[in-house]
Every structure is written in structure tokens, then in C-alpha cells.
Amino acid sequence: MAITTTKSAYFKGVADALPFVLVIMPFAALFGILANEAGLSVIETLAFSVMVIAGAAQFTALQLMQEHAPTLIVLASALAVNLRMAMYSASLTPYIGAAPLWQRALAAYLTVDQAYICAIAQYEKAPQMSVPQRMAYFFGAATPVAPLWYGFTLIGALLGTKVPESWALDFALPITFLAMIAPMFRTLAHVVAALVAVLVSLLAVSVPYSLGLILAGIAGMVAGAQTELWLERWREAKA
């Protein structure tokens, strides 16, 4: 689909994000079900999804709440899991930083993994897009994601334990992230960061309150950054 107007950019974003619908629905429903089992009311569960709109952070916080972790640990862990959003924002700024404030504020709220993955790929592929077209594309990519996240969270919370275990909705969590991160492995630094994070998370699985995830994330970022430095020095030495 050629992008010639903001309208075509919007619908291109919608079309590019549609494949994620297949995993967003069970992913959101699973959160609603687990939140219901953890004792949250339907209203509390829906409010959780609307206000946070970050699946990984929501699952992390919910698990820690079930383990009766201190509130500070719950908040710190959820924020740590969501630190990638700060990096998303930094990489989007050169493309949409000139947009009106209200659009940037709405985009900040809707900066979820799926919208970001689609947007950054499109912006890099079509640098000639205007800022209004980029914003329209971003909102288009978020359109199939956000309403379904809210809606299926509500469905999961309403159904609660009525969903049979044989449905195995938990498949949606790993598949979602595999589908999103696989295209991002474009350099050796990306691969090293991912491998180190996975290794550390496995080694730190016994750390209480899931704090091993924070350690794994930090280790992965440090390893990736160090690899970039080594590669840059190697290129300079060869030049």
C-alpha cells in the first residue's frame, strides 16, 4: 500500500499491526483470567489494563502481588520491565518529535511493543514520510492493539475460571514476544544482549520477587552496549 496521504498512512499502520491481533486476544484474556484468580475485581482488572497498557509489566506486577511482595518491589519490577519504553521513545523522537504536543502525549500512552515495532520499521523503510503521515501510521498501528487489549482483558475477567485449562492461553505470551523481537536481531550487539539476558535470567531464577528479571535486563543492556563499543573499535582499527 503506497503512502500518499495521512489517511493512507493510517490504514497502512492498521494493516501492518493486524497480525498481532491473533496473539493480543489470548494474551489479554489470559491476564484477565489470572487477575480474576488473584482476587482482583472486574473493574480493577480493566482499570489495570487501561492505565498501564503494558502486558509484560502487568503480568510481572500481578505475579509479585500474588507472592505478597512489598509494594516498592512490585512498582520497581514493573518499571524495570517497562524500561524498554524509554528506549522506544528515544528512537521514535527523531521521527515524530516535531508533532504537536497532544499527538506526542497520545503516542506516549499508546507506545506499546506492537505499535513501536511496526512504526520504526516503516519509518526506516520510508524516510520520505512527513511527520503527519508518521503520526497517522503510528496511531493506525496502535488501533488494532489497544481496544482489543482492553476488550479481551474484560472478557477474561468476566469468564474467570470458566475457561478450560486445555485452551492453554499462556502460549500467547512467549509467541507475542518472539514475533516482536525476532526481526530486531539485526546486529551482533542485539544477539549478544538477548543471549546474555536469557542466560542471566536462567541463572537468577531463584532470586526472590522475580528480581532476576531486572538483573537479566541490566546485564543484557550492558553486554549489548559493550559489544557495540568493541565492534566500533574493531572497525576503526581496520580503517
TrEMBL record:
Keyword Cell membrane applies: yes
Keywords per UniProt: Cell membrane, Membrane, Transmembrane, Transmembrane helix, Transport
Main location: membrane
Membrane-spanning residues: 17-34, 46-65, 135-160, 166-182, 189-207
Protein name: AzlC family ABC transporter permease
Domain of life: Bacteria
Compartment list: Cell membrane
Family: Belongs to the AzlC family.
Membrane topology listed for this record: Multi-pass membrane protein
Record Pfam families: AzlC
Keyword Ligase: no
